Amino acid sequence: MHTNHFILVVALMAIFGLGVVGCDYNDGPAEEMGEKLDQSVEKAGDKMQELGDEAKDAVDQ
What we know:
By secondary structure, the protein is an all-alpha fold. It has one domain. The chain has two helices and no strands. The longest helix has 32 residues, at 29-60. The protein is elongated. The chain starts with a helix and ends with a helix.
């Protein structure tokens, strides 16, 4: 009984693992647009942080 349970767990892990790996390669247009939007927001946030740091440095001098 213990061996059958172990085999079942391993088989389920393999099935779910393959399903997750397979999903990464089939990005649709909405997924790609979302990723581009995320990148743009991240770049804007980095730029705002940089500008804030420059303003703080200017005030500190």
